[in-house]
Design brief:
Length: about 300
């Protein structure tokens, strides 16, 4: 009798544990990545769409980059859920790992959020649209349903993302915009020219929000707005807070409203957070953790 009771309790607890792990928050996750968007700029910027999302969702203005505070190394860390000494991409423009990746998939890439989704949901539609070609070197392209590089064209990037959202309704879409990084390098970070470009960034956010609504998936979509680094004067890559603090702004099912997150976060927490929202297991080699504080308990 005791053996049967123990077995019964074990089965019940196992079922509860597995359902809790696989309980998804969202059917779709769309990550908008804006290159060079420093957290320092958010409060001063004229960005009504972004600030409405902050009121309607949760946000942190103190997420930290990995070092150096540059592009490829940080986008890789976000998508791959770990830091540069594990995935191997170490510089602003890394095209191949300068350090051999600690582990690779059959497609010769460190396991990313794309890997995790496709492994556990083979029929899921996943992909990326990006306006900086450097993103393409980080992607495990053979498993993607969509891979669109729109080199230097922000409007084409926006429009392709809108097309995919409306027509395909992907389970996961990563959209990379190269601005306001260009404005930071040309006009200078925290300059009038930089803040002028942030108005365009805000318009892109608004257009993609509208596409999500028009696609009829707003109530089942987690929208994440993130960045790879900030900047100081006309550069970045260093250790100042203006360079290493970036925003995370989340809105969607299960996300707390109007909540400022105080939990310490680092950019490679992104992949586990996406996995958590979709109800899938994180890759064992990831070092990041799901930012559960953004979500209602």
């Amino acid at each position: 009798m005791k053996l049967k009771l123990s077995l019964f309790l074990f089965l019940i607890l196992s079922t509860l544990g597995s359902s809790a792990l696989g309980q998804k928050k969202a059917k779709h996750v769309i990550v908008l990545g804006f290159d060079g968007l420093g957290a320092y700029a958010i409060e001063k910027a004229d960005m009504p769409n972004l600030k409405h999302i902050m009121k309607d969702g949760s946000y942190s203005l103190h997420v930290r980059t990995v070092l150096p505070s540059s592009s490829a190394v940080n986008w890789a860390s976000m998508l791959m859920g770990t830091g540069p000494t594990m995935h191997g991409y170490t510089d602003w423009g890394s095209q191949t790992p300068e350090i051999p990746s600690a582990i690779t998939t059959s497609n010769d890439r460190f396991p990313s959020i794309f890997t995790a989704i496709k492994k556990q949901k083979p029929k899921a539609k996943i992909g990326s649209v990006y306006s900086w070609g450097g993103i393409g070197y980080l992607l495990e392209k053979p498993i993607l349903n969509y891979d669109f590089g729109m080199e230097g064209n922000e409007l084409e990037t926006q429009n392709k993302a809108i097309e995919l959202i409306k027509n395909e309704k992907p389970e996961f879409l990563f959209v990379h915009f190269d601005q306001p990084d260009g404005a930071g390098h040309n006009a200078g970070h925290d300059s009038p020219g930089y803040y002028e470009e942030l108005k365009n960034v805000d318009k892109r956010i608004g257009e993609i929000q509208n596409a999500i609504k028009e696609a009829g998936i707003e109530n089942e979509t987690l929208l994440m707005i993130v960045s790879d680094h900030g900047g100081i004067e006309k550069g970045h890559g260093g250790k100042s807070l203006m360079e290493i603090e970036v925003p995370w702004i989340l809105k969607g099912p299960g996300v707390a409203k109007g909540k400022a997150i105080t939990e310490p976060l680092i950019v490679y927490d992104l992949a586990p957070t996406v996995a958590f929202a979709l109800g899938i297991k994180p890759e064992e080699v990831w070092r990041g953790k799901a930012a559960k504080s953004f979500f209602n308990k």
